[in-house]
Amino acid sequence: MKFSISSSILAILPLASFAVGATLPLESRQTCTLTCGNVQDSLPFIQSFSQSGTDHFYTTSTTENAQFAAKGYAAQGVAGRIFPTQEPGTVPFFRLFNAGWVDHTYTANQQLRSAEINITKPPYADDIIAGYVYLDGSCPGTIPLFWAFSTSITDSFFTTDLAEYDSAISSGVYNGQGVAAWIYPAA
Ligand SMILES: *[C@@H]1O[C@H](CO)[C@@H](O)[C@H](O)[C@H]1NC(C)=O
Q: In whole angstroms, what is the distance from residue 80 CA to residue 182 CA?
């Protein structure tokens, strides 16, 4: 079970959900609408897949997407929309790369990022910040980005399509890891 450590850490560290409302002073409630980013600033989170590396890859950069296409990554459309720069209410969506597994993974969870780097064997390494995302669904129009991981082909797969997520799990190839982030739909 290559992924048991990360999975168990994720289980005890659910993504933060912020209780807003009755217990907050009026001033806080009035500013709630300001804690969301402007969806018009979001960019497509472009998805591709390498058959040889069994690696799903996601980027907001059309330049980087073209570079990966040249390396043999096949276009798979758009997974959703995320922010290229930090907006109100968002956190970094870290991209990590595991050279041993040829796996790019993405997380908004700092503890999980640390575990992937310091505990998972072979280890992941910090790559870049892929963009900025929400930790919960409190901003209007956001949807969950689901994360599935395959131990057999060592691939992290992300989708906002719940049916696709369920299908990946029921295929027996992937294990459901839950919600990685909240983002905007592709269209
Ligand atoms: C990994 O562990 C080292 C040593 O404890 C620590 O300094 C470093 O911050 C950790 N890395 C991450 C990403 O947490």
A: 10
124/166 Cα distance (integer angstroms): 26
What are the domain boundaries of the chain?
A: 41-142
> For ligand 1, is residue 40 a contact (CB within 6 Å)?
no
Asked if residue 67 has its Cβ within 6 Å of ligand 1, the reply is no
Evaluate: CB of 123 within 6 angstroms of ligand 1. no
**φ, ψ at 177 (rounded to 5°):** -110, 0
Pairing state of beta strands 74-82 and 91-98?
A: unpaired
Strongest mean pLDDT among 2-11, 24-33, 49-58? 49-58
Q: How many A from CA of 114 to the centre of ligand 1? A: 6
Indicate if the pLDDT at residue 36 is higher than 90. yes
Q: Which of 118, 120, 127 to mutate to test ligand 1, by most ligand atoms within 8 A of the CB atom?
A: 118
Name the pTM for this structure: 0.83
Question: What is the per-residue pLDDT across 168-182, written as a single tens digit (0 to 9) for each?
Answer: 999 999 999 999 999
- As to burial, measured by CB atoms within 10 angstroms (0-12 exposed, 13-18 middle, 19+ buried), residue 138 is middle
Structure tokens at 113: 């990022």
CA-nearest residue for atom 13, ligand 1, is: 114
